[in-house]
Specification:
Elements lengths: L7 H11 L2 H7 L4 H13 L7 E4 L7 H9 L9 H9 L6 E5 L4 E3 L7 E7 L2 E4 L6 E3 L4 E2 L1 H6 L6 E4 L3 E7 H4 L12 H20 L2 H4 L4 H8 L3 E5 L4 E3 L7 E7 L2 E5 L11 E6 L4 E2 L2 H4 L10 E4 L3 E7 H10 L1 H19 L4 H4 L4 H10 L1 E5 L4 E3 L8 E14 L4 E6 L4 E2 L1 H6 L6 E15 H8 L3 H12 L5 H6 L1 H13 L3 H18 L2 E2 H6 L4 H24 L11 H12 L9 H13 L1 H5 L3 H10 L12 H28 L5 H5 L2 E2 L1
Parallel strand pairs: 24-25
Antiparallel strand pairs: 1-2, 2-9, 3-8, 4-7, 4-9, 5-6, 5-8, 10-17, 11-16, 12-15, 12-17, 13-14, 13-16, 18-23, 19-23, 20-21, 20-22, 20-23
Length: 669
């Protein structure tokens, strides 16, 4: 920003053209902003294309600045003219005054907030990405919040007209570490501190956890315990396994939550859990975990420069010592996530979910409390289309007019899913136990997004509805059933078929893995190294599967037809590797198991025991029409067709020689 320094001689000359110093002050009496504006202009020239700066010293004209400071509520108004004159020109501080032309950016969004601009006259507009423009006028400060918290400017500040400003730097506000703020700037310091606290309160109020649960007065109290932290782009906020000692709220910028193994060069272990956007909190286990040294369950890294609000465990404990009821309000607000991620009871259900789906469920589920003996759902009703996961307490399932007890549900068990899937009325009443009930509730739309494309959960739903009419795929994807089927195959000396099936499934899943470049960069990965490592992994894993299950001399050789074996031999000879190269052989083994081992397993006591443990529904006994099973089956048919289309495309890709471009496509922009 250009500027023209004024000299004492020039200042005296221009002042004499207007009149004496007393005449100048009298001319603008009652309007010190106009006096300041005119005085600064007269000292610094009239260049219309740049900022014009006047540095006030004991030898220069400073009445304009003193007059403004005497009147402005931002400064210590009770101080004498003499004290303010000394403060303006003393050795500890040399205030700078600029006259900035219209349309010039005083500060630019993203730049370090090293100073503030106090508006003496004119006006400044505030422009932040994704926000409506704001306007600042005389006695207001541009960059106050950012300056207070020593972060980047969160907006660009542009003059709307020729504007006179006072620039104050961090050094002026704090001449040396630990030094007191100059007395003339105490009012300014108080103002920016208040602005900073108001901003923290506003950010906390935008957090979904708090916006509807904690009052503004409570949030203002909580804001005092937070500090502001800035983190650069593509850096880690914290890493999986680290000690959890603080909770964060993202104020601005972009971040991402992941799970990964840092020693995994292929980055296959990197799972994007969710994007973190402004107003979202993360890391709450640090505040409410019962463990003395809780560990981070995920990694959070940045995709841009970010500003965080941080509250440490120590600051949180100090806060709640003065407001103990606030602790319970915050814990209640965080309950959904902690019950899913930190509860051993909830793990009975979440063990079937991928980490991504657990995070999705935690962000969607709302904790709902029911009084003792209160009905959650009533038999025959169609409202309350909600999926419930029991977090605390027990629920009783009652059937018929006489409310015959059917079973008791404990933490980790769930209900309401069939009404969502089928649209039919509830077949039984579910009532809270004598000590009440706490459930995590998921509405119909979120239920579909979370569960119906999760193979393990979907398989269990089918097993509960279809019972013994299930197919082999349902058995393979439900953990308890799969273990029972494995034991059955071991007795028939056919366990290699199941192992081969899942070895190929895992290889195919690697081919479906997608990750963004920015996420890998934020975790410290070298993109080209990841691509090469993935290719090496594909070659190595393909040979391991072939040597273990396909080679004629393999110890666990599966019973493949000659044409499948010849096709694989030809692909290996030509080094035509792909993630789907074993898919035709896997499908053949599946058909073999379905028509042989599974047919005997269907009538075995092992399957009956597992189905009894899962608790299948009997449509006739509970008055449920068979249309329920048909509806589930129609969903299965659509999924089967989708799977067949995917396999067809995989076979087409297998016909082409594999190269690095296919792996490179996994690393998305």
């Amino acid at each position: 920003m250009g500027c023209v320094e004024s000299s004492p001689a020039r200042a005296v000359t221009e002042i004499s053209n207007v009149g004496t110093r007393g005449q100048q002050i009298a001319q603008y009496e009652g309007n010190p902003e106009a006096f300041a504006h005119q005085s600064a202009k007269s000292q610094t020239g009239s260049d219309a294309h740049s900022s014009r700066r006047g540095t006030f010293s004991p030898d220069d004209h400073k009445d304009a600045l003193v007059a403004f400071m005497m009147r402005s509520p931002l400064f210590a108004g009770k101080q004498s003219n003499r004290k303010l004159s000394y403060a303006v020109s003393g050795p500890a501080m040399n205030l700078q005054v600029d006259v900035v032309p219209r349309g010039v950016a005083i500060y630019t969004q993203g730049d370090p907030a090293n100073e503030i601009a106090i508006i003496m006259s004119g006006s400044v507009s505030r422009h932040a990405e994704g926000e409506q423009p704001g306007k600042l006028g005389p006695d207001e400060i541009a960059g106050a919040v950012e300056f207070k918290h020593k972060i980047w400017y969160a907006a660009s500040y542009v003059t709307e007209e020729e504007t006179c400003i006072i620039r104050i730097s961090q050094h002026m506000m704090e001449p040396s570490p630990g030094a007191r703020t100059p007395s003339s700037l105490v009012g300014v310091q108080k103002h920016i501190t208040e602005k900073g606290n108001i901003w923290i309160t506003k950010v906390l109020g935008s957090v979904d956890l708090f916006s509807k649960r904690i009052s503004k007065e409570r949030l203002a109290k909580a804001a005092e315990a937070f500090r502001v932290r800035r983190v650069g782009a593509y850096e880690r906020v914290y890493t999986l396994g680290e000690n959890a000692n603080a909770w964060y709220v993202l104020a601005n910028g972009k971040a991402v939550a992941t799970m990964s193994n840092d020693s995994d060069e292929t980055a296959f272990s990197v799972t994007e859990l969710k994007n973190i956007t402004p107003g979202q909190g993360f890391g709450e286990c640090a505040l409410i975990s019962k463990s003395k040294s809780p560990k981070r369950p995920i990694t959070v890294s940045t995709l841009s420069d970010v500003v965080l609000l941080e509250i440490t465990k120590q600051a949180f404990d100090k806060l709640i010592s003065t407001a103990p009821d606030l602790r319970q309000e915050i814990i209640d607000a965080m309950r959904a996530r902690t019950l899913l991620t930190g509860s051993s009871d909830a793990s009975k259900f979440t063990r079937f979910l991928s980490p991504t789906k657990i995070e999705m469920l935690a962000s969607m589920a709302a904790p709902v409390t029911f009084n003792p003996h209160q009905d959650v759902v009533s038999e025959g009703t169609v409202h309350h289309k909600t999926f419930y996961l029991i977090a605390e307490g027990v629920a009783r399932v009652l059937k018929g007019i006489d409310e015959t007890p059917v079973r008791e549900l404990t933490p980790g068990e769930y209900f309401g899913e069939l009404s969502l899937v089928t649209g039919r009325p509830h077949s039984a009443t579910v009532r809270a136990g004598p000590k009440g009930l706490v459930c995590l509730a998921v509405n119909e739309d979120d239920f579909s997004r979370v569960f119906l494309d999760e193979p393990t959960v979907y398989a269990e739903l089918r097993l509960r509805v279809l019972g013994a009419e299930c197919n082999l795929r349902d058995i393979l994807y439900q953990q308890d059933c799969r273990q029972a089927f494995m034991r059955h195959c071991e007795k028939e000396v056919a366990q290699e078929n199941v192992q081969f099936y899942f070895a190929v499934e895992e290889l195919e899943a690697r081919g479906q893995h997608r990750i963004r470049k920015g996420v890998l960069k934020s975790l410290g990965y070298d993109i080209e190294a990841v691509i090469q490592s993935r290719f090496n992994h594909l070659v190595k894993t393909s040979h391991e599967i072939y040597d273990k299950f396909v080679d004629a001399d393999a110890e666990m050789c599966v019973n493949l037809e000659d044409n499948h074996r010849r096709d694989l031999e030809a692909q290996f000879a030509a080094e035509e590797y792909s993630y789907e190269m074993f898919t035709p052989a896997k499908d053949a083994i599946y058909k073999l198991m379905a028509g042989d081992n599974f047919m005997r397993f269907e009538t075995s006591q092992g399957l009956a025991d597992v189905l009894r443990q899962i608790g299948p529904y009997d449509p006739e006994e509970e008055g449920r029409p068979r249309s329920m099973a048909r509806k589930i089956q129609s969903i299965a048919s659509r999924r089967e067709r989708k799977r067949e289309r995917k396999e067809f495309m995989a076979k087409q890709r297998t016909a082409n020689r594999f190269d690095h471009s296919l792996i490179r496509a996994q690393i998305e922009e």
